[in-house]
Automatic annotation (TrEMBL):
Family indicated by similarity: Belongs to the sulfur carrier protein TusA family.
Matches recorded under PROSITE patterns: UPF0033
Pfam family, one: TusA
CDD domains: SirA_YedF_YeeD
UPF0033 domain ranges (all copies): 7-31
InterPro entries: TusA-like, TusA-like_sf
Name by which UniProt lists this protein: Sulfurtransferase TusA family protein
Length: 73
């Protein structure tokens, strides 16, 4: 996967991971990929819903060592 930008939102509670994701995705061009790292367990539902409502595509999600990783296009 060709990631354009990585956003470190670890340690932030909702709604900050969404706020930072929105800002970061607005800096990308259409088709580019943003990788988000967060520790907020609510992000799984919130980021997938946000991506869908904003017309973005959640490409992949994984959890590793209590860090949630998302790839949004």
């Amino acid at each position: 996967m060709n990631v354009t930008k990585i956003l470190d939102a670890k340690g932030l509670a909702c709604p900050m991971p969404i706020v930072k994701t929105k800002k970061a995705i607005n800096e990308l061009e259409s088709g580019q990929i943003l990788e988000i790292h967060t520790t907020d367990k609510g992000s799984k539902n919130h980021l997938s819903a946000w991506a869908k409502s904003g017309g973005h595509e959640l490409l992949e999600y994984e959890e590793e060592n209590n860090i949630l990783k998302f790839w949004i296009k």
